[in-house]
Structures are given as C-alpha cells and as structure tokens.
Specification:
Layout: H1 2-7, H2 9-16, H3 18-27, H4 31-47, H5 52-75, H6 82-95, H7 100-120, H8 127-152, H9 169-194, H10 200-214, H11 225-254, H12 262-265, H13 290-308, H14 315-340, H15 346-374, H16 377-384, H17 402-406, E1 418-419, E2 440-441, H18 448-468
Antiparallel strand pairs: 1-2
Helix pairs in contact: 3-4, 3-5, 4-5, 5-6, 6-8, 7-8, 7-9, 8-9, 8-10, 9-11, 11-13, 11-14, 13-15, 14-15
Amino acid sequence: MNSLTLNRHTEILEILEIPQLMDTCVRNAYYEEALELAAFVKRLEKKHSNIPVIQGIVNEVCQSAQLMLNQLIQQLRTNIQLPACLRVIGYLRRMDVFTEAELRIKFLQARDAWLKSILSSLADEDPYFHITKTIETYRVHLFDIITQYRAIFSDEDPLLPSADQTINEGAIFHGWVVQKVLEFLHILETNLHKGVGGRLDSLLGQCMYFGLSFSRVGVDFRGQLAPMFQRVAMDTFAKAVQDSVDKFQEEMNLYTLISAPAVLSSSVPMTLPSNQPGTLQPPMALLDFAPLACFLNDILVAFNDLRLCCPIALAQDVALCLEAALLKVTKIILAFHRAEETAFSGRERELFVHFCVAFAEDLVPYLNRCLQVLFPPAQIAQILGIPPTQVHKYGSLGCLDVASILEALAFILPKKEIVLATDPGLNVDFKDVPPPGQLIESTSVQTSNEKVQEGERMQMELTADVQSTPQEPTEGSG
C-alpha cells in the first residue's frame, strides 16, 4: 500500500493541491482555468463521493467557485463594456448556477445597481442642474445597458418552446425598462415642482430629445412628458397670479387718492409710444394708478414666463385662473370703496371713478387681448375643427368673461348705452369681434340690416324734401 502511494505520489499531490490552485486562479481572474478545475472536481466527485478527502476537496472548490461567482457579478456592477459583459455572462452560464430567467434578472439587478450609484452621486441643490445631469446619465448609460442586454440575451420566441417554460423572459426586460422610465419621470416631476425658473422650455426640449433617442430601442415615452410639463406650467402661472393679487391687496391697503393723476392735472398732451407691428402696447393710462400698473406688470411677467412653454391645452385653465384673479381684484377695489367712501371728498370720488374706469376699460380688455395673443382663436378653432367665429360658444377658451368681472363695479362706473353683440348678421372681421360676454357700445358697429334700413330711410326723407320744396319760375315760363 505504501509503495502504491509512493508511486502515485505526484498524482495524489496534484489532486490535493486542486483547492489551492482553484483559489489562485479565481483571485487572479483566471476564470477559464478555474472553470476547468471545477468541472474536473465534479467528475471526481461522481466517481469517489464516498471518500472523505475527495469530499473535502469538493467543498473547498465550491467555496472558491462561490468567490468567483461574486467577483463576476461584481464586475457587472461597474462601468463594464459590451465585450467584457459577453465574457462575464459566458462564464456565468458555464458555471450553471442560474437558469436563463434568473441570469437575466441578475444581469439587470447588477447593471441597475451601477446606474443608481451614478445617479446618487449627482448634486441635487439646483433642480435645473440635477435634471439636466439626470437626463444625460439616463441617455448615455441606460442606452448602453439596453444595448448590452439585447446583444447578450435574445427575446425572440423559440421555435420549439420547452414544456416546462412558464416564465415569459421577454417580459422581464420590458418590466425593468418601464420601471426605469417611471423612476426618471418621478425624478423629473419632483425637481420641476421645486422650481426651475424660466428654463422650463429648455428642459422640455432636452426631455423630448431624450425620449426621441430612446425610440430607436422601442422606449419612446414623450407622450408622458406633455401632461407633466402642462401641470407644472399651469401651477407656476397660478402661483405668479396669486402673488400678484396678494401684492395688489397690500398696495391698496396703503393707497391714497390725495394726489391727482398726471393725465388729469397736466395740460400738456401725453405722447404715447408708437406700436410696432405684432406688439401689444400696455395702456399708458394705468401709469396714473400705481396699484393697477404694478398688478398689470406682475401679470405680464407671468405671461412672459408662460409664453416660453405654453401648451394650447391650457387655454381654458389660464383664462379661468386669470378671471378668478380679476374677480378678487374687483372685490379688493370694492372693499377699498366701502372703507373710504364716507371720507371721500368730491375730488377723491372723481379720482376713484377714474380708477375704476381704468380698470374696466384699460386693464381688463388689455389682458383679454394678451390672452388671445397667447392662445390665438384661429389656432383653437383649427384644433376643435370649427370656424373661428364659433370659438366663443365653447366657454372660456382663451378669453375672459368681462361682463361677470365688471358686474360688481356697475354702480360705480359711468352709465353707457350698451347692447350685446348677438346679431348673426354682424358684418365685421373676426379680429374686431369682442370676446363672449363683453359689452360694446351701440354706436360702435352696425349690422348689415341696420345699414340697409338707414339707407332706405334717408332716401325717403330726401324724396319728401324734394317734393315739398317750392320751385322758382324759369326764364322761359309765361
């Protein structure tokens, strides 16, 4: 027995050194050799599983194989390129530790952990900077992960599916991609609500380009962006309008009518700047009333911010928001009137009437025109598929209900003979048609029927005058 052992000393020593050799190969990343050793030990175990020494060797090799498995999965958690990914997945398949579905899940989990580590390292103090860096990270690295996955795994249905295949392997990748898109949209919405200033249009362009680039891999999510940016734009505008109303309230609390407005007290005619084509000049008469002028400026700032990212779908919401703000302004003006009415002098009462007239005839109509510039009636009509003259029948679509805004001030404003422009034969261009509910003076326009009736009446009067006028005799008469 001893002589046999001595003769086989070299072979026995090689077998006993297999665990040490396996550990050396794993720690030095010689995975090809390590896999060959592991396969040899498996065959050895099948032949001599009852020998304690062989069982000890198998246990030690299994520990080294577990270390190799952890190292391979850890490589997937780094910035690994496609060739290295192919080698790692090849080693994992040869180890025969995971099923095909489990291997896909392990790959996605490891790559997802690496992507999250990059996202967590981004600075989030500035929402705009955080969103732009997040978009760049997703666009570059998520696209790489999708490319690697599709190069390694095939989602095509097999020609002969196995009988025990109960897992839809293609759904694994689809579910993971949907989860990543939802996570990005959540990060985007969170940062948008923190406020990005006047750079909403820039972010929208970047996000749309991001979604377009992912359409090449079948992950076009641009349809999810429009409602989100629409909500943020509306919330930002509503907050700016509310701040304008609050500021107007504070200024009215300190406002006094002692000093006469410059336009009323000055005999020098005021020169108004000429309107450039395509521009909308604010009413200069509002300069005489500081609260109204400041309120208009704040609303115009909100309009300019909204104009950068102004979906046509916000036409009704913006109009209703502005209308509610103007109703609040009307209540503030009435509260000022109730508080100061008993102390008004004749001059102050006159100034207050001019204040209300400036609000009713300058500020409100001007804001109504601004709304129609932001949301052109022709564009709204084209989307709805109706003639532009029928837009007013659909409610507050890009216009204000002027009558309801000014209704509470009717007892203060000077009385005018007014009629509602409801005659279907109104012969004016659409740009001259007032918004629904706005009152126009009866002498401002005439219907075609009225013009015909007036012409017939003038002709009859002229004929009667000719018949009643005595004729002088001519020179040839007897």
